[in-house]
Amino acid sequence: MRTIAVMNQKGGVGKTTTAVNVSAALAASGAKVALIDLDPQAHASLHFGVTFEAEFPSVYDVLVNDEPLSAVRRQIAENLWLIPAHLDLAAADFELASVFGREMILRDKIAADDMQFDYIIVDCPPSLGVLTLNALSAVEEVFIPLQPHFLALHGLSKLLQTVELVSKRLNPKLRVSGVVLCMFESRATLAKEVAGDVRAFFEKRGDDSTWSDAVVFETCIRRNVRLAEAPSFGQSIFDYDPRSNGAEDYGALVKEIVAMRPNGDA
Question: How many domains does the structure of the chain reveal?
Answer without folding.
Answer: 1
